[in-house]
Amino acid sequence: MSSFHVTPWLLIALALTSCVRAGHGLWERSTNYNAASKQAGTLEKRYFIIEPRGTLRVWPNAEIKYCFENEQTKQTLLYNLQAAMMKWYAAGLPEERFKLTEVSAAECRNRRSEVLRITYNTDGVLGTTPILQPLDANDPDYVGPSMTLSDRTDIGMLDVIANFAHEIGHAWGLLHEHQDPTYWEPPYSTRGTKNQWTFQCQNLKDYAEVAARLSPEEMTEACQFRHAAAAAKFSAAEYLPMVGGGRGEGTGEPDMESIMLYPSGAGAVGAAAPGNDQRTAILLNLDGSRVPINLNPSARDVQGILKLYNTPWPTTNPTLLNEGSSSKSSKFKSLFKKKRCL
């Protein structure tokens, strides 16, 4: 078993390379309390977190225990994974409390439901299970939390380490900033009064493929409602608001510096490379400008994790939606299955 920590050299190296590292595209997303306190004026704004209840749990003692699928994957991913976690420490997440701890292959097998298993692919796919989710007899494919990583440089934030940091945010329990339903107006969500972005569904990479097998009416719904997009296996499900899931904290506008916020080109048609993003836009700001690529966690990202791990969440409730006894259990759990990032 081993843990990793920030060293002065690695912090310096990270600072020197964070703006030039390359990343990818099918991704799916405290302190030094001084960093957060300096931005106290913005911390009352919102961050979007999963709400642990019943059998849905945060990581015990703020420690994510993880393993790699094999030694080759470890050799491929370990440096960038460590550098991604150091981004969180540099942003203000307390290193002395929040840990990523590698465990043995034997412990990974024997305690699979409590260990994050990390796999590697060259297809540009990224995805992570948010926090610890219960096993479910109705979902035999789920055996425990997992993280899928790729080191391609043409996807997501076009930065490998930033993409990995986004996935680590999911593992701790953060959801996509842009999927907070309070930032969308009808028909997308009934919880918001004003769209914070223009959503250009037709620019998603898989739009044409999905449109070819759905009726025009079904395609309209798949571009407006997350449940319809998910049912159609359409990537719009990673953009549209998570109505009925998650918990936004605070009030105000979206955190445009959040590492959990998709940049405009994530999942869009068009070529991309570090420093040369030719992808079309999925989300645009209301003034027509592109949503930026954020390479580092924001102060509010850190505050969201601290909220999760400093709150005494209820542990028992026979009718909670995430418990098997609830008739709506499967629908609720489907909101929080492995987040696939674009």
In short:
With about 350 residues, the chain is α/β, with parallel strands linked by helices. Helix content is about 25%, strand content about 15%. It contains 10 helices and 14 strands.
Q: Care to describe what's here?
A:
The chain is 27% helix and 13% strand. Mean pLDDT is 80; it is low at 1-46 and 316-336. Strands 1, 2, 4, 5, 6, 7, 8 and 14 form an eight-stranded mixed beta sheet that branches. The chain has a two-stranded antiparallel sheet with strand order 3-10. It has 342 residues and is α/β, with parallel strands linked by helices. Helix 3 (71-91) packs across helix 5 (160-172). It is built from ten helices and 14 strands. 46% of the residues are buried. Strand 11 and strand 12 form a beta hairpin. The radius of gyration is 19 Å and the shape is globular. The two termini are 32 Å apart. The longest helix is centred in the first third of the chain and has 21 residues, at 71-91.
Count of DSSP strands: 14
How many alpha or pi helices? 10
**Global shape:** globular
Beta content = 5-15%
Question: How are the elements arranged and paired?
Answer:
Elements: E1 2-3, H1 8-17, E2 26-27, H2 33-38, E3 47-49, E4 63-68, H3 71-91, E5 99-102, H4 105-110, E6 116-120, E7 125-128, E8 146-149, H5 160-172, E9 197-199, H6 207-211, H7 216-222, H8 226-231, E10 247-249, E11 272-273, E12 276-277, E13 283-285, H9 299-310, H10 329-335, E14 339-341
Parallel strand pairs: 2-7, 4-5, 4-6, 6-8
Antiparallel strand pairs: 1-5, 3-10, 7-8, 7-14, 9-13, 11-12
Helix pairs in contact: 3-5
